[in-house]
Design a protein that fits this description.
heterodimer, A: alpha+beta, Penicillin-binding protein 2a (Domain 2), Beta-lactamase, 2 domains, 6-stranded mixed β-sheet, 19 strands, globular, B: 410 residues, mainly alpha, 16 helices, 70% helix, disordered C terminus
Chain lengths: 469, 410
């Protein structure tokens, strides 16, 4: 073969190589990238898709329908059964203002977006209006209603969960909004300075106050460094700054157990300086401070100071003041982990995704998020929390015939009005429910205002909920 | 040399047309109109008669026209689905294009002095450039369209063919021209003057095709490595200079590397194209069931993305394979042709089709930076269809035995 023909063939082969590159990239694109690209929010096809799909329903723990879609006069409308009760959990889905809550985070399930398989396409040809999957929640509507009643007239959040599985039993945040008149009142709702659109339970960050002493105590138990006898004078000076007790008369000579149950600030401020910044930070971060809690709803990250702080700030951190910010969900998870003998369960709110044909598409079950180091004497920690309710600041959470454990918090903050906190669980021997109550800028104390609400929540939950275990 | 092919390929082509036309009919069931019937029947008749006519008159290659029939059938059906008005217009352009195909076939066959008109090709090319700059209108960032009597037309489509004939005349008569020892440099200078003018018109895609045709033919026919090295260095230098000097070149590269931050402006076209291809998956959404109209120029530069969305990436790959086949037939025609001039022309035209398809498909799927070009025989557009058929007619002519001159195969 002569030079010309050889070169003609070489040129042809290089052109073919170019075309093979195109085919190879197209295949790669479809296999690895198409899925992500299709779900880009700028893809107009997603909106078109949604308007043709009968969005799935959402049902509660007892299979009561909370929201469904129906065809009316040729267009599809979304019917929310409760105006307010689920406004932060289910959220809204509007073309005008986007989506929130489960409507947002479970959108692809609700519209059954992953339906681009050959068989589904044939089904869609026959039945052009697609039907989305349904969601079954872990929420108990009665408990949800109860907690909203208990919180009425206040700002704040209440969350109840099963500490052994991570199921969220109820989650209420006030103020809330009417999801059925959201579009008409959007301007008013979105500009309200009380932020009714925020789910305070998972998105709000608050000074945790004395509830944070749980973390300080755990850190001390880990280091086996505690002051067995400490003389509480009612105030202590650390690095030129004076820390005072809530009642300034002084607790006298006390150990860790009594200091925890009486919520002695001088003891814990001093303890924190013994523990040191690095250890306290490590303990806080192992309990999901400074990292995002994986959850079905969008969460805010709890804050613990990330750079070395001075002694004064360290002491303040030890009693949950200063630059610490915690979400109620985070404090609830820490409490649940202690109740569950050290295993922090991943919280979840969607139990099942159910296809329109009533088949289970996906089932979510409890999984362990992290475990507290087993060198820590958790029985002692539990005893300390029990003591809070028996003899300490949390006696208002006491229930007849049921043993309750918990921790109060009364957190000073920039507003000048204290946040009132209570975290706790019951029954003490075999915990079934853990609760967090946060009253934002309520001006009251945790033991006085939050503990009674937590008690009512626990009574109601223990009497009414069908626990799955 | 004539290849006697059976009836099977044409029957398969009809099967495809009838199936996809029935999809079009189903899609437009509620408002079937004259246009739908006219397009459907028109397409089938056009393909049938032009293929059988060609079979009667040409002793050359019968595959290239069949391959192209498949291409324009896919294109017409897709364009009609996007807009029935454009579909009807495209059918008319195809009719004219096929007329031009036969005309150029006869011209190539019956004129013998093609290789002696090198100055005509040169003049035509510069004349067309001058016309573009004088009459040209800036359309979508490029000044490469002129409008004569209401019909807009892209002169560069014809300049491409003039370039091929210019290079063919030069390399065919290389012994005569190489008496001037600077001849190869002069040719290179002329080609780069075209490329430079195209850069000024912001027609980067066509500039790339010019470069590709020249580099390919030079590789085969030019003796002397130094010319090839000079050509590649010039291209590298020119490309870098273009990148530094022209913002429109920079934007192309930027939106190629990562279009997502510019999704609402500079990267809009390419991201919409990717959405469409992703939506189509392997088998497509089905004709009429996707949203190709979300892509800008869905019937033109991005017809490949529209096809991928509704007919699936497998059809997209099929389109690429059709171009591979067309280029293969073109090169085979060159290998079997014993007249050197027609060999060069055949390679030049095959290269032109192949490069153009590669550049626009590669751009639409983000393998290479996006440059606006039409997909030959598939995209909507009069000047693209007519000039592609003009080139195809020449290739058809080059596929026949030429006995005008006694040149033995070297």
């Amino acid at each position: 073969m002569n030079r010309e023909s050889k070169r003609i063939i070489t040129l042809f082969i290089s052109l073919c190589a170019g075309f093979i590159l195109l085919i190879g990239y197209l295949s790669y694109f479809q296999i690895f990238k198409a899925e992500t690209i299709r779900e880009n929010q700028y893809n107009k096809r997603l909106w078109i898709d949604e308007e043709e799909v009968l969005r799935g329903s959402i049902i509660d723990r007892d299979e009561e329908v909370l929201v469904y879609s129906q065809e009316k006069n040729g267009s599809i409308e979304r019917v929310y059964k409760y105006d307010y009760l689920y406004s932060h959990i289910i959220g809204y889905s509007t073309r005008e203002y986007g989506k929130s809550g489960l409507e947002k985070n479970f959108n692809s399930y609700l519209i059954n977006a992953n339906r681009n398989t050959a068989i589904n396409e044939v089904i869609n040809l026959i039945n052009p209006v697609g039907v989305g999957n349904n969601l079954k929640l872990t929420i108990d509507t009665d408990l949800q209603r109860k907690s909203r009643e208990l919180l009425r007239g206040k700002k704040g959040a209440i969350i109840a969960m099963d500490p052994k599985t991570g199921e969220i039993l109820s989650m209420v945040s006030l103020p809330d909004y009417n999801v059925n008149s959201l579009i008409d009142n959007w301007a008013q709702i979105s500009e309200d300075t009380n932020s009714p659109l925020i789910n305070r339970g998972v998105q709000g960050l608050y000074t945790p106050g004395s509830t944070f002493k749980i973390v300080t105590a755990l850190s001390s138990l880990e280091l086996k460094d505690e002051e067995s006898v400490f003389n509480c004078q009612g105030s202590i000076e650390i690095d030129g700054y004076i820390f005072k007790d809530f009642n300034s008369s002084g607790h006298g000579s006390i150990g860790l157990l009594e200091a925890f149950s009486k919520s002695c600030n001088t003891y814990f401020a001093s303890l924190a300086t013994h523990i040191g910044y690095d250890e306290l930070k490590a303990m806080a971060e192992s309990l999901y401070f400074n990292q995002r809690i994986p959850f079905d709803l969008d969460t805010s990250i709890s804050r613990f100071p990330e750079t070395q702080v001075g002694l004064t700030d360290l002491a303040a951190s030890g009693i949950g003041q200063g630059r610490i910010g915690a979400s109620p969900l985070n404090m609830l998870l820490i409490t649940s982990a202690i109740a569950n003998d050290g295993d922090m369960m991943k919280p979840y709110i969607v139990e099942k995704v159910i296809s329109p044909q009533s088949n289970d598409v996906e089932i979510f079950t409890g999984e362990i998020l992290t475990s507290i180091d087993d060198s820590i004497d958790l029985v002692r920690m539990q005893e300390m929390m029990r003591e809070v309710v028996i003899n300490g600041t949390g006696t208002n959470a006491r229930i007849r015939n049921v043993q309750v454990a918990g921790k109060t918090g009364t957190a000073e903050n920039a507003s000048g009005k204290n946040h009132a906190w209570f975290v706790g669980y019951a029954p003490y021997d075999d915990p079934k429910v853990a609760v967090v109550v946060l009253l934002e800028e309520d001006g009251s104390s945790g033991g006085g205002a939050a503990a009674p609400i937590a008690r009512d929540m626990m009574i109601y939950a223990l009497n009414n909920i069908k626990f799955r275990r | 040399m004539g290849t006697n092919i059976g009836k099977i390929p044409i029957r398969l082509l009809f099967l495809f047309e009838i199936l996809s036309l029935s999809l079009i009919f189903i899609y437009r069931w509620d408002n079937l109109d004259f246009n739908t019937f006219a397009t459907g029947i028109g397409l089938v008749l056009l393909v049938y008669f032009s293929n059988s006519f060609l079979r009667k008159i040409s002793s050359g290659d019968h595959y290239i026209f069949l391959i192209v029939s498949m291409m324009f059938s896919i294109g017409l059906i897709m364009i009609f689905r996007i807009s029935s008005d454009l579909g009807i217009k495209q059918l008319l352009w195809l009719l004219i294009g096929i007329g031009v195909f036969f005309a150029s076939y006869f011209l190539v066959k019956n004129i013998e002095f093609w290789d002696k008109m090198i100055l005509v090709y040169l003049g035509t090319a510069y004349g067309l450039f001058a016309m573009t700059f004088i009459l040209g209108a800036r359309l979508r960032g490029a000044i490469n369209w002129i409008s004569i009597g209401g019909v807009s037309f892209q002169p560069a489509e014809v300049t491409k063919i003039a370039l091929i004939f210019f290079l063919a005349s030069y390399y065919y008569n290389i012994e005569k021209y190489s008496k001037n020892k600077y001849s190869e440099w002069i040719v290179m200078g002329i080609v780069y003057s075209y490329i430079g003018l195209l850069f000024l018109q912001r027609d980067l895609g066509t500039a790339l095709i010019f470069f590709g045709i020249y580099t390919g033919l030079q590789y085969i026919y030019c003796n002397g490595r130094r010319y090839e090295i000079a050509n590649l260095s010039l291209a590298l230098l020119g490309g870098s200079l273009g990148y530094i000097l022209f913002d429109h070149v920079k934007i192309r590269v930027l939106t190629w590397l990562n279009p997502w931050p510019y999704i609402n402006d500079k990267g809009y076209q390419i991201t919409q194209s990717l959405f469409a291809i992703a939506e189509g998956s392997y088998f497509g959404t089905g004709l009429g069931r996707g949203n190709p109209s979300f892509i800008p120029l869905s019937y033109n530069d991005f017809i490949f993305s529209s096809i991928s969305e509704e007919m699936g990436v497998f059809t997209g790959i099929g389109v690429i394979m059709l171009f591979v086949l067309l280029v293969y037939r073109g090169f085979k025609i060159a290998l079997l042709q014993n007249h050197k001039f027609y060999r060069i022309v055949a390679i030049g035209i095959s290269l032109m089709f192949g490069l153009q398809a590669f550049i626009i498909i590669g751009g639409a799927i983000k393998v290479i930076p996006l440059t606006g070009l039409t997909l030959p025989f598939i995209s909507y557009g009069g000047s693209s269809i007519v000039s592609s058929f003009l080139a195809l007619g020449i290739l058809q002519g080059a596929s026949e035995k030429v006995v005008k001159e006694d040149e033995t195969y070297e």
